[in-house]
């Protein structure tokens, strides 16, 4: 048995409701996730934010052999409808850098490394094949979620091809890259990136979308 073409895969969510949504999706497809040493799919809550997600991912990867890691959960959409899915071509640390009179300077511009971790090509191909209606492009990782018009304009000016915003992908990606494990990111959309409007968030729809997306992925499991 494999999942997304990999013999053993770690799925990392930020919070327990996302983990439960992943498990429901697997159950819909008749696939069981277990945390045993021989399980094909392990689903872990990594915590909110880059540091927590990276630390959890690194800890779990150190305890067992995995072929791939998938960062999965809800996020803000950029041109993607609520409940829809977004697949990352890369996870980008969009607010890691420095302010300057000329504007924001990212890690690459500062010469401190790269703010981008590309998705594994094979895993990306499997995700897009299973979810043909999903938006595909960079997914931004931020420590502070965008909530103003000015912030939205600045973000989109710097990342015009981005399809979603979340808070953990770059951390999971970095931990996976450190040990040479394939990485991918899947987000389902709870709200549009823009001025904060908590009343417009549809977390339930995004979690339902996550379950459906995971079920589609699991149905391709040989």
Structure description:
One of its GO terms (molecular function) is adenosylhomocysteine nucleosidase activity. Catalyzes the hydrolysis of futalosine (FL) to dehypoxanthine futalosine (DHFL) and hypoxanthine, a step in the biosynthesis of menaquinone (MK, vitamin K2). Keywords: Hydrolase, Menaquinone biosynthesis. It is an enzyme of class 3 (hydrolase). By secondary structure, the protein is α/β, with parallel strands linked by helices. It has one domain (9-219): Nucleoside phosphorylase domain (Rossmann fold). Helices cover 35% and strands 26% of the residues. The chain has 7 helices and 10 strands. Strands 3-9-8-4-10 form a 5-stranded mixed beta barrel, surrounded by 4 helices. The chain has a two-stranded antiparallel ribbon with strand order 5-6. Helix 2 packs parallel to helix 6 (169-178). The N and C termini lie close together (6 Å).
Number of strands: 10
Structural class: alpha/beta
Q: How large is the radius of gyration? A: 16 Å
- What are the segments in which pLDDT stays under 50 over at least 5 consecutive residues? none
Biggest sheet strand line-up:
3-9-8-4-10
Beta content = 25-35%
CATH superfamily: Nucleoside phosphorylase domain
How many domains, as an integer?
1
- Strand and helix order: EHEHEEEEHEHEHEHEH
Major beta-sheet overview: 5 strands, mixed, barrel
Termini separation comes to: 6 Å
Distinct helical segment count: 7
The CATH topology is given as Rossmann fold
Helical percent range?
25-40%
Catalytic activity: futalosine + H2O = dehypoxanthine futalosine + hypoxanthine
Domain Nucleoside phosphorylase: 39-212
Function: Catalyzes the hydrolysis of futalosine (FL) to dehypoxanthine futalosine (DHFL) and hypoxanthine, a step in the biosynthesis of menaquinone (MK, vitamin K2).
Family: Belongs to the PNP/UDP phosphorylase family. Futalosine hydrolase subfamily.
């Amino acid at each position: 048995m494999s999942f997304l073409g990999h013999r053993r895969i770690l799925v990392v969510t930020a919070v327990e409701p996302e983990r439960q949504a992943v498990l429901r999706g697997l159950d819909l497809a008749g696939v069981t996730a277990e945390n045993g040493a021989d399980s094909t799919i392990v689903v872990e809550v990594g915590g909110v934010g880059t540091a927590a997600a990276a630390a959890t991912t690194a800890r779990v990867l150190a305890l067992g052999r995995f072929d791939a890691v998938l960062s999965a959960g809800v996020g803000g959409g950029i041109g993607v409808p609520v409940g829809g899915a977004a697949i990352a071509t890369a996870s980008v640390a969009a607010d890691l850098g420095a302010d300057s009179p000329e504007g924001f300077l990212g890690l690459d511009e500062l010469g401190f490394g790269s703010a981008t971790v590309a998705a594994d090509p094979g895993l990306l191909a499997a995700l897009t094949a299973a979810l043909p209606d999903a938006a595909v492009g960079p997914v931004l990782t931020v420590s502070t979620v965008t909530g103003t018009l000015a912030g939205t304009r600045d973000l989109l000016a710097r990342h015009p091809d981005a399809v979603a915003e979340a808070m953990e992908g770059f951390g999971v990606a970095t931990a996976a890259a450190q040990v040479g494990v394939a990485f991918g990111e899947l987000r389902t959309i709870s709200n549009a990136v823009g001025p904060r409007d908590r009343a417009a968030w549809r977390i339930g729809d995004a979690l339902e979308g996550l379950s459906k997306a995971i079920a589609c992925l699991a149905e391709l499991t040989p």
